Amino acid sequence: MNSMSASLGTYTAEVEKTLASLSQQDMMGRIWRKDYTVWKPQPTEITDRLGWLTVTDLMRKRIPAFQSFTWEIKIAGFRHVVLLGMGGSSLGAEVLRQVFGRAPGYPELIVLDSVVPAAVQAVTKAIDPQHTLFLVSSKSGTTTEPLTLFLYFQNLVAARAGKKQATQNFVAITDPGTPLANTAEEEGFRQVFLNPPDIGGRYSVLSYFGLVPAALLGVDISALLDHADRARESCASSVPARENPAAWLGAYLGTLARQGRDKLTLITSPSLSSFGLWVEQLVAESTGKEGKGIIPVVGEPLTEPASYSDDRLFVYLRREDDNNAVTDAAVESLKSAGQPVVIRKLAHHYELGAEFFQWELATAVAGAILGINPFDQPDVQQAKDATQHFLHKFAATGRPFTMSTSGHLGDLLVQSREGKYLAIMAYLRQSPELDGLLTHSRRKIVERYHIATTLGYGPRFLHSTGQLHKGGPNTGLFLQITAAHGSDLPIPGQPYTFGTVADAQALGDFEALQAAHRQIVRIHCPQDSERAVVTCLAGELGV
User: Closest Cα to residue 117, out of 399, 433, 485?
Assistant: First the structure.
């Protein structure tokens, strides 16, 4: 079982007070009884969002079905599996893909959670559509990105195999009764996995949304669920708060955020680096509302302790058999400098099952400590509405959007001070070279301005940190990065292209952030090739 230790200095007493309060309120017992008053006086989007507490019971019964389905896909000769999803429908699968890889003889999994044309084109070139299984993954069954990607890839497969045969290349993962579920039934998808509807997207990794792609990778689902269930037992309603690991983690997160240390900085062993993508969405979208929130800082390069302000809580996820020497030394330096540090140790990668469950429960506890509902996302719709406005405008006029640079990074950074953070939002195809450039820039900004930095690729982050950006504390400085589309792709049956959708999302988010009185500037690069973007940004970022 995962172990946890903490070095909190002067904050230890505050956490102890929080735990005493949790015990007095019987908070853990009430959560297990699904008592919505733990969070709010009304049950809306609470009582129907707590299925994740017991979903492993259902998934364990489905293990034979997972095995049968996986065997069917291998026998059918599929070489790739492409998951079309966003946010909670994709990030858990992406973590499992990166941590476990694929077992010998299993298809390669690609997660496509972008409508940026260059990203869609890269996946198209990497696969043979006729021998690729597509997982169309959406809780609501109405999410724009996976549905437009489905139209595109369905057209590609049908052009090679015929429309009737093409349906056997598609699988839906969604809630019962959604438009996607109806489409899948009408068109005869190979399989439809109907998820329990009382689980929100960001709490769904241990349901069909995470476990179907995991099974197709050859992950031992039974072992993953075993560790999740051991964590669940350790956090049962009968376990006192002081002995409950999720209560402790939630108390750390919520208490230190209330004390001004709301920049949750996640450090991981090298093999667990992708875990931050999942934690980022879980924590940001759950807590970032009502002007409150915990800002997850993921993938930021470590630097000298003197570069950090007093607004951080560091959590180190350490896999025991990994190459941890450099990271261990950096964490010891942080502890010596008086920064609060929590260390969570994993013996092996299947203990991620326990991490998934404990972080979900801890986030629910932190939400109660902060006085917010961790299961809704009230500020996400604003950016969606703005995107639809721009798409309707394009459909009516046919005129392409004007994208241009608006301000400069320096205009934002002159406003930096303790408690602020810089959010880099890149509507670009992710690549190792671009990652390297932006990571180097983040390090320089931390060292010079002593503020936290975050990085998200659009439109993925709209389904992750987007809620926090608009509904959380107004301490963010926002840098949007866009680029002209050198080549574009039409969306079958739609009056616009993928490039048009990506631009509409960038414009819509820009407008929504302005409406929320956030400080934002845009850098627009005239070309979208990797080299051109890196050259453009190197000058703008001063690296």
Answer: 485
